[in-house]
Amino acid sequence: MTHHAETEKVLQVVDGITDEIVEFAADLVRIPTVNPPGALYEVCAHTIGERLKSFGFSVNYVAAEGLPEHSPTHPRVNVIGSRAGSVSRPLLHLNGHFDVVPPGYGWTLDPFGGIVRDGRLYGRGSADMKAGLAAAIYAAEAVRRAGVELRGTIEVSGTVDEESGGMAGVAWLAQKGLISSNKTDYVIIPEPLNVDCVCVGHRGVYWFDITTYGRVAHGSMPFLGINAIDQMNKVLNAIREELVPELATRITDMPVIPSQARYATINTNTIEGGQANQLMQTPCVADRCSVIFDRRFLPEEEFENVRGEVEELLKRLSIRTPDLRYDLQDRLIVQPMRTPEMSPVVVAVRDGVRSVLDREATLVASPGTYDHKHVTNIGGVTDCIAYGPGALHLAHQPDEWCGIDDLVASTKVLALSILKLVA
Ligand SMILES: [Zn+2]
Asked: Residues 193, 216: one domain?
């Protein structure tokens, strides 16, 4: 077949199997792989693995043996399918996480019903990112059903724990050499970043803990102690008054969406102080308070300066507040990621978007990180992008949904990308 004939045939095949793609995505939504705690991972990995096997992949299950989160009640099981062509390289790896965040409140329909209605698949994980997984699997299958012989190799993996950092998921596969620059040329992660957008990376992340220490005393005589929660209040005020306005002046030239996320930001993620609130309370001045902060930094900011700025702020505050006792601890540092625009994987997917949707893809960067960081930092693969169905703003929301038209279009774009990169 000529390249043109192959393209036409593959697009026809996808149109012919739309119902099958939607049904498989709905089947995945019906498995409530909620994280935390990481429920039903094994069931979901096998559902994906069986499908890959029936599509001619050789399939391996990779458990994160030895990690503390891999437990008998909640095993961390990943699945990876591989289908080699005549010369095995180049190798394109399509990766999707199958864990989903808890449904939360505010749903008007069953979050795990896999309901298809009015051209949408509804449910927790429909957009983020079980539709993306279905698109990846069926893109590879469409190429096969079209009768196209591949030169290189396609891999499809379904992985765990992306929502909680991915250490037992993509990071684990990368550590085991299963996603590695020694074998892997390109990675596409079909996260929901809008069907006409190609995502080339993300901002950096600095999670840190600040703990303030007080002195315990009877709650009826607070003047005899030092309240660590009140001390933390001073820290929070200093961050709001001194750091937040400064961050709001810094903007990256990376195309982060939504546009407000092009600025440096900080979020107070968790606060815990005094006695645990689910316990019976006894009157005490809180002698300890901890806050976890989530600071997102720009490629234009150096990490050392990002941390230094927090240290300086705390030093200034303790000069004004002599009884302030605190410590600062790093929790997580992720450097910003940025795949070059001229990377073959970026070019292939942009070409695919142009053919399928008849418009130019927008290059974007994600406001949050995703498994790209492990692919590059641990696996050493630099040609990595995210591209997949579903709208970014619906991820983690009540009544999450993914448009069937998006699901079909992204399956086509991924199939054409396979032709371009692997055939
Ligand atoms: Zn996701």
From this structure: no
pLDDT of 121 above 80: yes
313/344 same-domain check: no
| 248 shares a domain with 141 | no
Active site residue 294: no
CATH of the domain at 101: 3.40.630.10
H or E segment to which residue 43 belongs? helix 41-54
Task: Output the CA 97–ligand 1 centroid distance in Å.
Answer: 7
Residues 6 or more apart whose Cβ sits within 8 Å of residue 217: 224, 225, 284, 285
Full residue range of the structural domain in which residue 14 is found = 3-202+336-422
Distance 252 CA to ligand 1 centre (A): 23
Mean pLDDT for 137-142 is: 98
Residue-level pLDDT at 3: 84
Look at the chain and report how many structural domains it folds into. 2
DSSP 126-167: IIIIIHHHHHHHHHHHHHHHTTPPPSEEEEEEEES-GGGT-T
Residues 302 and 165 in one domain: no
Both 211 and 142 in one domain: the answer is no
pLDDT band at 36 (very low <50, low <70, confident <90, very high): very high
Given 6, 99, 155, 400, the catalytic residue: 99
Could you tell me the pLDDT band of residue 1, with boundaries at 50, 70 and 90?
Answer: confident
Q: Which of 334, 359, 384 is the last residue of a domain?
A: 334
Q: How far apart are the CA of 28 and the centre of ligand 1, in A?
A: 14
Q: Which two tokens stand for residue 381?
A: 């693969």
The answer to whether residues 185 and 257 belong to one domain is no
Task: Tell me if residue 125 falls in helix, strand or coil.
Answer: coil
Domain final residue, candidates 279, 313, 334: 334
The catalytic residue among 6, 128, 141, 162 is 162
CA of 389 to the centre of ligand 1 (A): 11
412, 11 Cβ separation under 8 angstroms: yes
CB burial of residue 234 (10 Å; 0-12, 13-18, 19+): middle
Q: Tell me whether residue 162 is one of the annotated catalytic residues.
A: yes
User: Ligand 1: distance of its center to the CA of 391 in Å?
Assistant: 11
Does the pTM surpass 0.85? The reply is yes
Query: Which CATH number is 284's domain given?
Result: 3.30.70.360
| CA 400 to centroid of ligand 1, rounded, Å | 12
Residue 297 is inside which H or E element, if any? strand 288-297
Distance 129 CA to ligand 1 centre (A): 5
